[in-house]
Amino acid sequence: MTQRPYNFNAGPAMLPESVLAEAKEGLVDYRGSGRGVLEMGHREDDFLEIAHAAEADLRDLINIPDNYKVLFLHGGARGQFAAVPMNLATRNDTADYVVNGSWGKAAAAEGKKFLADAHIAAESTPYTYVPDESEWRHSARPAYVHITDNETIDGVAFDHIPETEAPLVADKSSDILSEPIEVSKYAVIYFGTQKNSGPAGMAGVIVREDMLGATRPDTPAILDWTAEAEQGSMVNTPPTATWYIAGLVFKWLKNQGGVEAMAEINKHEAEKLYRAIDESELYMNPVRRENRSHMNVPFTITVPGLDKIFLLEARTQGLINLKGHRSVGGMRASLYNAMPESGVDALVEFMKAFEEKPF
Ligand SMILES: *Cc1c(COP(=O)(O)O)cnc(C)c1O
Fold first, then answer.
1. How many whole angstroms from 195 Cα to the centroid of ligand 1?
2. Which atom of ligand 1 is nearest to the CA of 192?
């Protein structure tokens, strides 16, 4: 393979090279069977083994208790924006959303379509911090409280798990598997797979069993957690390739020492980059210290007109996809598990050299 660039994309994101190499083989000729994973029937023993191993490894990695179901579903995280109210609330219910970034805002807007109201219990302005729990204003009887643990676009993350009376639902698309989590504090955790778990096309849903059974009858079958739990996430043909490659990522993670080891590395890498930003005159990150994301680091260049040059020159150094989300501009470096420390070092070095240039 040619030298791979360091890919800072927020999602779909960089994957470990060894995972890609194994997938390349498995997609063509799975374990010498003469046919690849893409061509397998989803109810064949070989695929069922892949599917069950992926679930078992995910359970192992983040210690998912036995009273939680793990689902692998179509439609990414946004599909779950709709599935959450459909499975946890009636059309006459209100649910509460805490908004500290663009994805939480979008989750509330989508949820509102299927609820009496998606009540905004708190919203930070601007999205540079998580509103303090003492300022959350809940509705009278929320069906659930929805949070976005790590805001991928704004780089704003919770630094602890909030205590809520109503069932706590968390979108963990961009920080799942980046650190240990106390699953039992949540009623539901969901995540799109293309950030830190594998390729696009799938959502993982971790749901406590007592949350099941109340799905609305008019819920589309593929968003029905109860039916999906009963049928092993195979109400219809699942995204088999994504499931397979996510499973390879889970195995790779275990070999790296699991999420405990990853958390150390992620923290160390993120701190290096934030330090470089804070110590410079040219770069700026506005997020409150304790809410700074270890996964997505947005920053701006304080001298106007330099963004384009920065991105072009970064690319020539093998540092790609550093452009910020189209809604906020600036830069963003995503440092998911597959980003090696050498990538962060190369970025920091480039940023320092760029700052020293005369413009
Ligand atoms: C990327 C992302 C989403 C949307 O994911 P899709 O799989 O594209 O639907 C939702 N929430 C968060 C926190 C994300 O990072």
1. 8
2. 7
